[in-house]
Sequence to fold (647 residues):
Amino acid sequence: MVSMINIEAGAEGFALSAAGRRVLSHTHAHPCVEIGRSENLARQSRGTYRLRRKRTERDDLGPYRIVEAAEDRAVVDFAGKLSLEARWSEGRLRLTFFGYDSGVNFFRLKLAAWPDERIFGCGERFDRLDLKLSRAKLWVQERGLGRRRELLSGGDGRARTPFPVPAFVSTKDYWCSVDCSAYTIFDFRRSLTTIESWAVPREIAMGFRPSASEVVADMTAAFGRPPVPPYWAFEGAWLGVTGGSAALERKLEAVLEAGAKVSAVFARDWRDSALYPDIAGQAAALRARGIRLIGFASPCLAVRSELGAEASREGLLVKDAEGRDYLIDQAPGSLSPVALLDLTKRESAAWMKDRIRRELIDAGLSGWMADSGECLPVDAVLASGEDPLLAHNLWPLLWAKINREALEESGRGGDLLFFARSGWLGSSRYATAYWAGDQLEDFSRGGLSGLVPAALSLGLSGAGFWHSSVGGSIALGGSRRGAECLVRWMEMSAFTPFFRGEEGSKPELSAQFWSDPGVLSHFARLSEIYAALKPYHLAVAADQAERGLPPLRHPWMHYEGDPLAQRLSRQYLYGRDLIVAPALAPKAELTEAYLPEDEWVHIWSSRTFRSGRVSVESPLGYPAVFYRASSSFAQLFDALRRTSRRA
Fold:
């Protein structure tokens, strides 16, 4: 029988294993753990950060003493400067550390690794999917898309993410998470996996399971799973509009007359009473037609607004070093400056929950975007006294928790939803859904083509209900969102959990859902297809809530014996039964996809394929989508071809 925890001691060091897997190897010359004191520097500018470490003084942790070695618990003391406890609890290995000096702000641990493994996760990653041979820097921040500095340098913020997660899964069928809110780096480039952080983690957990899907399920069980979204969310597209009540009605009527299926209207500017003089009346009128109204909430409050002034009077805002309200100069085009609600203060959380209930829920809105969880400055002063360098990554977690509590305390929890863009370890249990944040309105990695790795990496980090804003939301310079890009984005979104659009940063220049007959026709057809998939959406959502399997899945999860499936990064499984290979480049009339070993049916032609690389026609409005012939939803999928209108 294999011991859950086993320590093998030798003349030069020891090796620690769990469930028969090597985890740590330690020698005097090459210690598995390091600690020290360093000068950690952090600079910020309009939502982006530069963090670096210098002049680190490290403690010698080569000498060690095994204090305890049992099947379910082991303790090792390193030179009296740090102790490691390994416990087997709830079927997982848990590593904790104690007995170190309070001034320690450098930590490094080296874990066993395999040269042929692939590494997925670490949150929402727009740059690459397989992280083996790379480094993942984990710090919550905006991507910085569209800013002049990024434009001049040719960058598109691919390495930055508003939703990093200090956790990963391996194709060797294990997962690992690091419970630490400090700036953390995972280095997968060498023979060992290195975890480096600006603080000693509260816990490092690892789970070992016999299959890929069981690994992901176990990880999400540890992190927390979201509830199933309300049924109405899957009945059609969420139409994003701005400009006020009259503009909302005009745009909505245009798409409804074309035959589009709309389940909700997302009005980001809903709080402007001059634009929406009777928001409660409009919400009620829309709901009578079977359409919900979705608004917007943020802990960033414009200082000249009524809410900002009230929060300042009540002493609810984050302070600067002089004790004044900390003013944040946001990106051009936003309401600058803004002040930030102090989420560590009990009164601030209660105040915000009350505003959400009164102004959103009681007014009849059915959901909201809970934005701006990534905004805590690194030199702020918090009511709790916490170090902002340690509180920054927890900020989106606190913000999501406040929104979840407001939703549940309303008594309408099953009928409401909220979605956010930023998060951290544990965020998955709070928000109903997450979105990819502001994307460029084009086919670049900062736009449409970066979405597949983002969706898959976040799903393999424990967060499931993900979607993007159809068409993107940032236009660079004088560029505009073209009709082709908008329709290709619609194609992908029709086969994701939610189909939500926005007008973009320059709506007068960009193609819109209602802007011309061709786009409108595609929107009507694709929203109809999305709505027709409601039974499948609900089944996939239940799978996420009950088993922890993300809706958008890497093919490795169900075909781990296929080495080619492990390498895929531009296509995904939606649920268990659909393979979607979006057209991610302009003028892509043919799309190549890889089909793992199974019997697959091309949804638009009914052609049957077994496995391997295939190339299918993908004219505008007809993405490369295949379903498993053995699926219990095969009849539903086949009906899409027979009943959906032609664009």
Summary: The domain at 555-643 is CATH 2.60.40.1180 (Immunoglobulin-like).
